[in-house]
Every structure is written in structure tokens, then in C-alpha cells.
């Protein structure tokens, strides 16, 4: 099993550009999550999904969108990138909502 | 508002000694707490957890203690090893069916050889 994979690892965006952060898991987990981690801070939940076709907002959803068309994939969309979205983004999944397994992260810089 | 606080940004210990990482939380009826370890440029990895119906959970060198009256939990690492050097996050899973986690800011543990 590859676990949770994220692409790309690094990305630099200009203000106003759009991009999609990819996340995939091969553990057949129902629950998937997107977090962001700013320097010196803990992880903050952006969006989550409890199954295909079901998504909901977390603590910091503004500026982001998600979709969950399959169990395996949970992409995160940034429509109009802003400097405040410079962060490290982590995707996670869990089976029964207990232990979450994290991907390696995507480091995004918006300039 | 469910809050999890790790008040020590960093901790330095000698190899072989005990490391104690602390976490405080706000009031709740039932919770499940987890500790994650994070190396630079990697995602967090699960370390150990404890349900609020327990006081202690042990897994090898790692033990988590939960003091419900003080709303405090701690992670003990004995003996500490240089490979334990990482950022440790305390996380709390609240109730409901979405199993969202609330994370503390983390504590950077450095174990010196």
C-alpha cells in the first residue's frame, strides 16, 4: 500500500492563479481530510469528507473548494490564490474516524 | 470551542533520560486524545492515543497519562533516543460522526546524544 499520496510536493503560485492539490489513498478509507499548517502553528482543518459525494467545511474553508467523486481521491481546489494561502497542506484519511493517516504534504507559496 | 493547548514550544533532553510533553484541553464530556509525531518535510504519523475513560495507555517506550480533573494529558518517552527528535502534536477528537481532530501547536523535542 502506498497509503496517502499527495501531489505536487512543492508549488509556487502567483496571486490570482488557481490550482488543484491532489490527494489519493489506497486503504479504502471512508473519511478524508484537508489540513493546512502555518509556521509555528498546529494543523487547521479546511474541509473533510465522510464518504464519496459528501463533503463539509472545517475550521478554515474560505478560499478553497473540494470534491469527492470516488472513495480514493479528495482534491483541494484553490480558485484565486492569495498570499495568506502560503502554507503546507496535508491530506489525511481514516477508516472509522479514529486514527488519521497523513500524506507527506504539499508546500505552497503564493507570491 | 474545543481547544487544545501545548504551552511549551520546545523541549531538550539528554539521550536515555525521560521526555515529558504536556497538553491541556478545555472542558468536554467525552473525548479521545491522540499524539502525533512529525519529522521535517514529512506528514504527521500517529504515535499513541487514549480514551477519556482511561487514565493511562502504554506502548513500548511511550506512555500517555490523562488527568481529567486537571484537563491535562502528558506523553512520557522513556528512554529518550536521538531518533525521537521531532515535533509532537497533541490532538483531540470530538464527538459526532465526522471525527474531526483539533490539534495543538506542537512541541519540538530535541534529544541530545
Q: How is the biggest beta sheet of chain A arranged?
A: 7 strands, mixed
Instruction: Give helix % range of chain B.
Output: under 10%
Please tell me what the overall shape of chain A is: globular
Approximate strand percentage of chain B: over 45%
- The DSSP helix count of chain A reads 0
Description:
The complex is a heterodimer of chains A (111) and B (113). Chain A has 111 residues and is mainly beta. Chain A has no helices and 11 strands. The termini of chain A are far apart. The mean pLDDT of chain A is 94. In chain B, 0% of the residues lie in helices and 54% in strands. In chain B, the strands form 2 sheets. In chain B, strands 2, 4, 5, 9, 10 and 11 form a 6-stranded mixed β-sheet that branches. In chain B, strands 1-3-8-7-6 form a 5-stranded antiparallel β-sheet, with no helix packed on it. In chain B, a hairpin with a 2-residue loop joins strand 6 and strand 7. The model of chain B has no long low-confidence stretch (mean pLDDT 92). Chains A and B meet through strand 4, strand 5, strand 9 and strand 10 of A and strand 4 and strand 5 of B.
Keywords:
heterodimer, A: 111 residues, 7-stranded mixed sheet, 11 strands, B: 113 residues
Give the helix/strand layout:
The complex is a heterodimer of chains A (111) and B (113).
Chain A: E1 4-7, E2 10-13, E3 19-25, E4 31-37, E5 43-51, E6 54-57, E7 64-66, E8 76-78, E9 87-94, E10 101-102, E11 106-110
Parallel strand pairs in A: 2-11
Antiparallel strand pairs in A: 1-3, 3-8, 4-5, 4-9, 5-6, 7-8, 9-10, 9-11
Chain B: E1 4-5, E2 10-14, E3 19-25, E4 32-38, E5 45-51, E6 56-59, E7 62-67, E8 72-77, E9 86-93, E10 101-103, E11 107-112
Parallel strand pairs in B: 2-11
Antiparallel strand pairs in B: 1-3, 3-8, 4-5, 4-9, 6-7, 7-8, 9-10, 9-11
